[in-house]
Amino acid sequence: MIKRFIHWTLGYSIAILLLGVGLLGMAAYSSYKASVGGKIPPETELIVQSGKVTEGREITVERRRRRSGGKTTRKYYELDLQPTNGEPIKLRVDFTVPRHVLEQVIDEDVTVKYDKNDDNTTYVIQSDGEDLVSYAKMAEISQLEADAEKASFTSSGSLAAAIIMILLGGGGLFLRRKLAAGDSQDDNDAVVPPSEVKIGANVKDNPPAFDKDAAFQHPREVPTDSLSQNQQAPKA
User: Fold this and answer.
1) What tens digit of pLDDT does each residue of 90-147 get?
2) What is the radius of gyration, based on Cα positions, of the chain?
């Protein structure tokens, strides 16, 4: 029972190991992201589009974790842009942009610059030649967010937790393999070699067969009168 409990406990070693490796991976990725300015694309690679903003809304996205029961919430703004020629475009604007800035562009003609490869995330909004949302400001916000993410994943506590998880997970896997090898050896030691009995009518090495019918057969009865006569008969 105790050994089974130990096997069950060590079964989580792989999950602990992967979690530790994942934390180190996030630390490395967040460091790289912060070093390149939050991975914001160059302004020259953004799509430039002019049109009229017909509607705007605030979007809230909640994601729940099945195991822990916790949830994460993300908010952003969404603008509907009707180009002069073409289909309407839904633009995503970071939630750090002041709400009143976006409210003043509703039903107004604007020129925007957005990244079509990132859910149409918008980095520039111009109205009458004036930058209501500038690329420099969005780049600064992106850098601050990347720096905060890096500080979270590369803190001494996070790195220490990742190293401890890797050591515990690796040690648990090693111990589990050792226990599995020991159980396999115990099973091999407990194997009893099979007995061998030759078959055939004239095999002399076989032990005599047990005749159940002969063993339980009743002895032949002797008549009482005959026995009495034998006892009374004179000796010659």
Assistant:
1) 999 999 999 999 999 999 999 999 999 999 999 999 998 899 999 999 988 888 888 8
2) 44
Q: Is the pTM of this model over 0.90?
A: no
Distance (Å) of CA 211 to CA 24, 144, 180: 77, 96, 48
Residue 236: predicted pLDDT: 46
Q: Do 112 and 124 meet the contact criterion of CB atoms below 8 Å apart?
A: yes
> Cα–Cα–Cα angle for 79, 85, 91, nearest 5°?
15
The predicted pLDDT at position 180 comes to 66
3-class secondary structure, 93: strand
Q: Left (φ > 0), alpha (ψ -120 to 50) or beta: where does 100 sit?
A: alpha
Amino acid at 88: P
Cβ neighbours around 184 below 10 Å, total: 10
- Exposure string (b/e) for 43-70, b if CB count within 10 Å is 16 or more? eeebeebebbbeebeeeeeeeeeeeeee
Which of these, 5, 114, 4, lies nearest to 51 by C-alpha position?
Answer: 114
Q: Is residue 192 classed as helix, strand or coil in its secondary structure? A: coil
At 125-139, the pLDDT tens digits run: 999 889 999 999 998
pLDDT in tens, 71-80: 788 899 999 9
